Amino acid sequence: LFNSGIGRSDFDKSDTEALRQNIVNGLLSLPPETLVFPGHGRETTIGKEKTGNPFI
């Protein structure tokens, strides 16, 4: 999960829908104030991504 993104899924054997579902069913079940520190880019919160991430 990234700030306003979910990461690349254009590699061989990648599955965009599986990636999205894992984020929705896993990470987005955390409390909205949970901080997210992606491997690169700005930090964010679960709440911000739930309401503003166009890929979810």
Automatic annotation (TrEMBL):
InterPro entries (UniProt xref): MBL_Glyoxalase_II, RibonucZ/Hydroxyglut_hydro
Protein keywords: Hydrolase, Metal-binding, Zinc
Keyword Transcription regulation: no
Top-level division of the source organism's lineage: Bacteria
Molecular function GO labels: hydrolase activity; metal ion binding
Keyword Cell inner membrane set for record: no
Named cofactor requirement(s): Zn(2+)
Protein's recorded name: MBL fold metallo-hydrolase
Organism: Dehalococcoides mccartyi
